[in-house]
Amino acid sequence: MAAAFSAPLAGTMFLLEEITFRFQIREWLTALAAAISADLMTVLVYGTRPCLWLPVNSNLPPVAYPWLILFGLVLGVLAWCYQYCLLNSRVWYRHCTHLPSKVQPLLPLLLVIPVGLLDVNLLGGSHMLIDHLIALPSHSAAFASLFGLLSIYFVVRFVGSMLSYGAPVPGGIFMPILVLGAILGALLATLLMHLHLLAAGNYINLVVIGMAAYFGAIEKAPFTAICLLTEMVGTMEQILPMLIVTFISYTVNDLLGGRPIYAPFEKKCLAWTKQVSNFSYKATVPTRASNLLALVGIVWLAKFFQPGFRHCTNV
Fold first, then answer.
1. Chain mean position to CA 238
2. Residue-wise pLDDT tens for the chain (315 aa)?
3. Quick one: angle between helices 239-255 and 203-219, nearest 10?
């Protein structure tokens, strides 16, 4: 997280809220040192601008704050729906007895084809879709078309996230959650702009707030979400609205019976660790030296090909 988003504090908080569930100074300092090192290497190779940079130039006006309460309630319910579908997605796959397990990973792959034909922005890296969402109001002035397009984006990405994660192959949920939160924030901003209750310049504010609140509610990690979006945006002035929506959505999800999304996965990892506990590996001096040389070589290659990576940072 520290390397991908230039967010060392969020990476350290993620360890506390999602992995260990306790605060021990040795673990905290070790994680913080690792996060700082990862962020430093990213800065040296890619530059100081994070890959997912969100330019928030204005503050959300207080007149829009009452809408944040409703936004938090909706996000809390949708966060519970995401958790429920995600935790049961692999069970649903196992119930598909007519589809062999070796063929099931092909299902999300085949569905990518019509999605790509519908809108290529839905494919590829999620940071590209978020950039597209930020620029979307300038390309579509009609409320109905913009609101409908964003709704389709949400449904497609939500269903695609479930199908991809439920398939018996490795999959991730980190960026899909941020994208869904950004789409929900864009939906609310589009509605308020249509009702003349929000200025066009504050559109990105609700996108950022939606990302923080939806991530914090689903992951049950509100401090990580606030730190992550604050470090990504680069301003402290949006913390209050992010706190309000994240707190409400987190509380609603908790009242509905939501639980930490990584808790079931941690139990599976512990069970797997017990199975391989008899396996031992001792790194020899030549092995450590080769690993160090490999690391130096990777850093040198990344520095050598740095101009080719500039498209990610737009520098």
1. 18
2. 888 788 888 888 888 887 777 778 888 888 889 889 988 888 888 777 766 777 788 888 888 999 999 999 999 999 999 999 988 887 877 777 777 777 777 777 788 888 888 888 887 667 788 888 888 887 666 788 889 889 999 999 998 888 888 777 777 788 889 999 999 999 999 999 999 899 888 999 999 999 999 999 998 889 999 998 888 877 777 889 999 999 999 999 999 998 877 766 666 555 555 555 554 444 444 445 555 555 555 555 555 445 444 444 443
3. 40
To the question of pTM greater than 0.85 for the whole model, the response is: no
- Find out whether 61 and 199 touch, Cβ atoms under 8 Å: yes
Distance, CA of 307 to chain centre: 26
Place of tokens 């009452």: 66
* String of DSSP letters for 260-286: -TTHHHHHHHHHHHHHTTT------HH
